[in-house]
Amino acid sequence: MAKLYFHYSTMNAGKSTMLLQAAYNYQERGMRTAAFIAALDDRAGRGKIASRIGLTMDAIPFDAADDLFTLVDEMHAEEPLACVFVDEAQFLSHEQVWQLAHVVDRLDLPVMAYGLRTDFHGKLFPGSQELLTIADELREVRTICHCGRKATMVVRLDSAGKAARDGAQIEIGGSDKYVSLCRRHWEAAMAEE
């Protein structure tokens, strides 16, 4: 039975690497997959899923206007799919998360979504909130703070290298702009003057 999976964590935990490994496992067995990535994340190039360790894969870029169920349904009718992958799933809209649930429930295809749980303010992203609510299976991908504790939060660095307190929820960047921390060190970083 197909399920909707949400693999979540902070920055730099290896989510994209896990996605690329899982997709490779399907493809190695001759099974066709579909991969999606948020169009606004073009760090590796538009329509590219990339890991920090150098692995890459082509993907279909999506934005808020895309109907993911219709896209997958058309691809599946053309040639059967075995699995659907979504990177940067925090950027999905509530409606798109439900569209992915319909892929699972109506097309009987597993969907593996990978993304951040919270932003630099410690607040849930809309896509993550909906995935945490309706996914069949939740899988935390763990990474560590500089102190060795489990990192559950992320800070965005300003131009001076300090924790930013203001700004838009979405600002694309990697380890040059974001640092994963445990709750204690996140709170300390946010309190620094």
Automatic annotation (TrEMBL):
EC top class named in words: transferase
Catalytic activity of the protein: thymidine + ATP = dTMP + ADP + H(+)
Binding locations of substrate: I170, E171, I172, G173, Y178
Keyword Nuclease: no
Transmembrane segments: none
GO molecular function, one term: thymidine kinase activity
Ligand binding (ATP): S9, T10, M11, N12, A13, G14, K15, S16, D87, E88, A89, Q90
Active site residues of this protein: E88 (proton acceptor)
Source species, domain of life: Bacteria
Keywords: ATP-binding, Cytoplasm, DNA synthesis, Kinase, Metal-binding, Nucleotide-binding, Transferase, Zinc
GO cellular component terms attached to this protein's record: cytosol
Key word Magnesium present: no
Matches recorded under Pfam families: TK
Compartment(s) where it occurs, according to its Swiss-Prot or TrEMBL record: Cytoplasm
Residues bound to Zn(2+): C145, C147, C182, H185
Enzyme Commission no: 2.7.1.21
GO BP term (any one): DNA biosynthetic process
PANTHER family noted in UniProt: THYMIDINE KINASE, THYMIDINE KINASE, CYTOSOLIC
Subunit architecture: Homotetramer.
Similarity annotation: Belongs to the thymidine kinase family.
NCBIfam families xref list: PRK04296.1-5
Name this protein carries in UniProt: Thymidine kinase
